[in-house]
Specification:
The chain has a single domain, classed as 23S rRNA-intervening sequence (de novo design (two linked rop proteins), Up-down Bundle), CATH 1.20.1440.60. Helices cover 72% and strands 0% of the residues. It has helices spanning 21-39, 45-66, 71-97, 103-127.
Length: 129
């Protein structure tokens, strides 16, 4: 599933989160966001902006949480990433309802977001134990 992700692990040194499936899926979702935004008709900048900001928030919060030492703080960032992912799902639903994106785009985005949310849910629970 992540074979199409344009991000590769760095050849020298890396951050732990770069190896995580959740982070790589979040980066793959950014490609979906880019494709959706490029196809939105004029007059929908508000949706494009909201989707870009929420979509970008997912990998950023995952990375920020990974850098935390406190389990409570880690969990807080993973929960923020999860909230942003669910916001993205809702934005995709709005775009679909308004007939601004096709079924394939919606399904692909939703598939990634369901995976991301499931992983983040587990991560936020584990972090606070």
């Amino acid at each position: 599933m992540l074979q199409h992700c344009e991000t590769e692990k760095p050849k020298t040194g890396y951050f732990d989160y770069e190896k995580w499936d959740v982070y790589r899926a979040a980066l793959e979702f950014i490609i979906v966001v880019k494709d959706v935004v490029e196809k939105l008709p004029r007059g929908n900048a508000y949706l494009a902006d909201q989707l870009q900001r929420a979509g970008t928030s997912v990998p950023l919060n995952i990375a920020e949480g990974a850098g935390e030492h406190s389990p409570d703080e880690k969990a807080r960032f993973y929960r923020m990433a999860k909230r942003s992912a669910t916001e993205c799902a809702s934005i995709l639903d709005v775009c679909k309802q308004l007939q601004l994106l096709d079924e394939n785009q919606h399904a692909r985005g939703r598939e990634l977001l369901l995976r991301i949310v499931a992983m983040l849910t587990k991560m936020s629970r584990i972090s606070v134990r």
